[in-house]
């Protein structure tokens, strides 16, 4: 069976949706599917075709961006030309250009959409997008969400619940304890000592300013503890200014992007725990939570109404705090730092939760069954 994944970006671009598309696509290849991914690229001027771990990649150049949405005529043209060559076209939403473009033609292929998150920031465009989105969802054979919270809370899905189902995201099993990993972890401990970790894009909804403010309080109690921020983004200069203003240069380190999977894994294993202080439902799931939990690390998250509160079980795999509350964040951080046994136990629970509920194997199996079902239904009704 041939599957076309339609996404904004793909590895090595770092982001939650991109990580899901990669793990799903590579897992499907292992199951005997033929998988292609159509995505954008900032670095090319014409369609570029390549392969990565068995997945065919079709990258289209970007003409410009409007409200975080890349625009590309080559992307639209390629999608239209390819659609009927696949058994299933799988859209990863939000991706307004692909969604609107798909309304302009009919296809024999079955259509699946994974509804990753609601659009919340471009409020001036929402009335227009809302109309197109509902028509797009009407044309899909099946809608997938990653959590029951998303299914209950997503306002745009209320009219389409009959064809919605929950398939949690998953990550590959990783039981690596090889010498190289141990050496990397030791180097990080030597350089930074004890540290807590954030991994993700440096954008406003991640709540990083509250986390840095919390570190100002942590400094008074445990000045030796560091905070490492992995990633990059448009608020870098704001974070740098805040760190300097609070005189936290010795406590907070902006690591930047980590391209190597092995290096990132070492950070997870070396840290005390991960903190994800997001302040809005734009943080719909939090793939970095799974990656940290798989490394037997507890997590601290905020009580946003999204899949985040479903992934991190309060008091079991980590702690949850109110959003936009640096005092609550600092208290939660100190609670874990002061109780190594609690930290260890939550880390064990976290690893078990990933293995039991959020494995790549189970995610691929569920999507495989869904593809076969919608493909059979489409052919039967055509």
CATH architecture name of the largest domain: 3-Layer(aba) Sandwich
Order of adjacent strands in the largest pleated sheet: 3-4-2-1-7-8-9-10
What form results from the Cα inertia axes?
A: globular
What is the overall pLDDT average? 93
C-alpha termini separation: 18 Å
Enumerate how many helices there are, as a single number.
Answer: 14
- Could you describe the largest sheet, including whether it forms a barrel? 8 strands, mixed
Please, how many domains?
2
List SSEs in N-to-C order. Answer: EHEEEEEHEHEHEHEHEHEHEHEHEHEHHH
What would CATH call the class of the largest domain?
Alpha Beta
Question: Tally of extended strands?
Answer: 16
Helix/strand/pairing category: alpha/beta
**Which percent range describes the beta-strand content?**
15-25%
Molecular structure report:
By secondary structure, the protein is α/β, with parallel strands linked by helices. The protein folds into two domains: 2-170 and 359-381, Glycogen Phosphorylase B (Rossmann fold, 3-Layer(aba) Sandwich); 179-357, Glycogen Phosphorylase B (Rossmann fold), CATH 3.40.50.2000. 43% of the residues lie in helices and 20% in strands. The chain has an eight-stranded mixed sheet with strand order 3-4-2-1-7-8-9-10, with helices on both faces. It has a three-stranded parallel sheet with strand order 11-12-13, with helices on one face. A three-stranded parallel sheet has the order 14-15-16. Helix 1 (16-30) packs across helix 14 (360-381), helix 3 (96-102) packs across helix 4 and helix 7 (208-221) packs across helix 12 (326-338). The longest helix has 22 residues, at 360-381. It is globular. The two termini are 18 Å apart. The mean pLDDT is 93.
